[in-house]
Design goal:
Elements: H1 2-35, H2 45-52, H3 56-62, H4 66-82, H5 90-108, H6 119-136, H7 144-151, H8 155-172, H9 179-197
Amino acid sequence: MGEYNKGDGMEDGAMVTQKQARTRRDIIMAMERLLSEQKFEVITINEICQEALITRSTFYRYFLDKYELTEALIQYLGERDLIMLDQGSLIAQVTNFVDKNVKIINNLNPSNQHKMNFYVEFVKLVENSLQAYFEINQDHQDDPFIRLFQSVDDRDLWIKFVAGGLSSIIINNPNPDDHFRQKEIIDFISELTDRLVK
């Protein structure tokens, strides 16, 4: 009898954890939908709660504020859309990431530059993607990033350098809907990387 009750308790605990994970995901998805339509600065906690169908007290059980929520959203987008190791070259992955999330990226850029932006979070996201990409795809010698990272003494430093450049393109492109210009800039970084290897 005691073992049965203990088992029930463990199952209840697992259900609570799943419910918490779903609620957290729902809040993140609500922020994604809101950022697809409006600038970060104008989004309020009340709007997030209405979109996620939760109370303010529930929101604050999961996130300190909308900045922390947006950091979680950036991580979520990266795991969903950028760290995709079977989607071709890294440049193709970055291009697809920007294409898929261009409205959110644009709305995260503060119109008032004194307000916080999320450049550091994007750099870390791209840096982690580069590390994972290199570890999985070391045999792909047709990718200039793979060849670059194999040819340098301090790979971590070069990964940070490339991540900074790619992140600048992702979040500081003044015309995020100009796909031709975006591709032109990304191709430039790819060509520059290729030349550095040679």
